[in-house]
Amino acid sequence: MNTSVSSAARLLGAGLRALLVLTVICGVLYPLAVTGIAQALFNDKANGSEIKDKSGKVVGSALIGQTYNLPKQNPDDPEEAAKPDLKWFQPRPSNGLGSNSVNTQYSLILSGATNRSADNGAVNGQCTKDAEEGTLCAQVIAAKDAVVADNSTATYQVKPEDVPADAVTSSGSGLDPHISPAYAELQVHRVAEQNKLDVKQVEKLVKDHTQGRPLGFMGEPRVNVLELNTALKALVAKG
């Protein structure tokens, strides 16, 4: 009997010591080491890839897209469609985003895709203006018409065939912070007109903020919309 109690006590003691040691190693030392290395070597990424404006204020993350819409005329009306603020470069559509029903006190961003196939709403394999409302084809056609209308100015007419795919489709996550250089360039004349800037100034802004392919061969060239709009704000303020 005493032997059994003594054996159980030893096992319990060994288990408690193992728990204490593993808690210190895995719960304290390892997190501190990983955090220290991340802060020392990857400080920007470890802190959320924050983007700051000229005054040093954090305006968002380089990893998460933002919308640039005008304030709603009736904020309490959930059915009122958001209208883009045409002073700013616009991001990709975010049709994949769901509404926040988890915490209604804050406007949280929820990630998600439409999960519609490429031919959703197509007739004989083609997207036409007769596409059923609510289908991907109908959304793409409406988005293309809006892009053409919003970005055509008195001196610059956007052609429907010049509208790139990323201007009318959302990303898989709905949170893509980037657009293609083609979509950024398509918006140049409208942004210049809205902000009373020279077109060449805005074209240079886009060129300066165009990122090449990672490692020179992966992915596609891209433009971070938040970084571009932050630079645009500074340019407008400079006059």
Automatic annotation (TrEMBL):
<keyword id="KW-1003">Cell membrane</keyword>
<keyword id="KW-0812">Transmembrane</keyword>
<dbReference type="Pfam" id="PF02669">
    <property type="entry name" value="KdpC"/>
</dbReference>
<keyword id="KW-0633">Potassium transport</keyword>
<feature type="region of interest" description="Disordered">
    <location>
        <begin position="68"/>
        <end position="99"/>
    </location>
</feature>
<keyword id="KW-0630">Potassium</keyword>
<dbReference type="InterPro" id="IPR003820">
    <property type="entry name" value="KdpC"/>
</dbReference>
<keyword id="KW-1133">Transmembrane helix</keyword>
<keyword id="KW-0472">Membrane</keyword>
<dbReference type="GO" id="GO:0008556">
    <property type="term" value="F:P-type potassium transmembrane transporter activity"/>
</dbReference>
<comment type="subunit">
    <text>The system is composed of three essential subunits: KdpA, KdpB and KdpC.</text>
</comment>
<feature type="transmembrane region" description="Helical">
    <location>
        <begin position="20"/>
        <end position="42"/>
    </location>
</feature>
<keyword id="KW-0067">ATP-binding</keyword>
<keyword id="KW-0547">Nucleotide-binding</keyword>
<dbReference type="GO" id="GO:0005886">
    <property type="term" value="C:plasma membrane"/>
</dbReference>
<keyword id="KW-0406">Ion transport</keyword>
<keyword id="KW-0813">Transport</keyword>
<protein>
    <recommendedName>
        <fullName>Potassium-transporting ATPase KdpC subunit</fullName>
    </recommendedName>
</protein>
<comment type="function">
    <text>Part of the high-affinity ATP-driven potassium transport (or Kdp) system, which catalyzes the hydrolysis of ATP coupled with the electrogenic transport of potassium into the cytoplasm. This subunit acts as a catalytic chaperone that increases the ATP-binding affinity of the ATP-hydrolyzing subunit KdpB by the formation of a transient KdpB/KdpC/ATP ternary complex.</text>
</comment>
<dbReference type="GO" id="GO:0005524">
    <property type="term" value="F:ATP binding"/>
</dbReference>
<comment type="similarity">
    <text>Belongs to the KdpC family.</text>
</comment>
